[in-house]
């Protein structure tokens, strides 16, 4: 019996830890779904005029509306779409009627249309403010000279296009015959893997219980064999 105490102890403790991790992920899932719901509500709120001094902390996803000139000065950000494959986001300098010059993510074009001429056009744009987080240690440096960008780096885009470091992602505009398809802000790209993690931890807990019972049974069988 003494030989069984230690593996039984580790079996119980290990199972408890794995169940706690699974439960924690379930709690995180509920929290994340609440956050995503709040973001969805904010994204779809009624748009307001561009704030004078917006910040990422308070104005991320803020719906805005502005009228002005979408210039022909563009940066092209390589991205991908499940339906289309490789695409380029078209980031243009946008000169508003009240004298500001900001970044406008007009939407996407297919690679063959990347360098097509798009003339300046006046339009009213409804969209959302966004401070994208698209760069990690594996993201290549932007090829500014070749106009192939790998992330929407606002500071660098603003420097190259001579705008405020402020990005509006278009949801819709009233320009006619646009060749650029809007790619509005959604919660789709925000990771929410907590259910997957919870299932993994609970699955490991079940495996831990099975292995513990198997090990205990094997030890008892060996003991009986030795006694005979």
The helix/strand series, from N terminus to C terminus, equals HEHEEEEHEH
Q: How many distinct folded domains? A: 2
Shape: elongated
CATH topology of the largest domain: OB fold (Dihydrolipoamide Acetyltransferase, E2P)
Q: What is the mean predicted local confidence, pLDDT?
A: 91
Structure summary, number of beta strands: 6
**Rg measurement, Å:** 27 Å
Percent of residues in beta strands?
25-35%
Helix content range: 25-40%
Structure commentary:
The protein has 228 residues and is an alpha/beta fold. Strands 2-3-4-6-5 form a 5-stranded mixed barrel. A hairpin with a 4-residue loop joins strand 3 and strand 4. It is elongated, with a radius of gyration of 27 Å. The two termini are 17 Å apart. 22% of the residues are buried.
Summed up:
This protein has 228 residues and is α/β, with parallel strands linked by helices. It has four helices and six strands, in the order αβαββββαβα.
What is the topological layout?
Elements: H1 2-43, E1 48-49, H2 56-59, E2 63-81, E3 85-96, E4 101-109, E5 121-129, H3 154-161, E6 167-173, H4 194-227
Parallel strand pairs: 1-2, 4-6
Antiparallel strand pairs: 2-3, 2-5, 3-4, 5-6
Helix pairs in contact: 1-4
Highlighted features:
single chain, 228 residues, alpha/beta, OB fold (Dihydrolipoamide Acetyltransferase, E2P), 2 domains, five-stranded mixed beta barrel, 4 helices, 39% helix, 25% strand
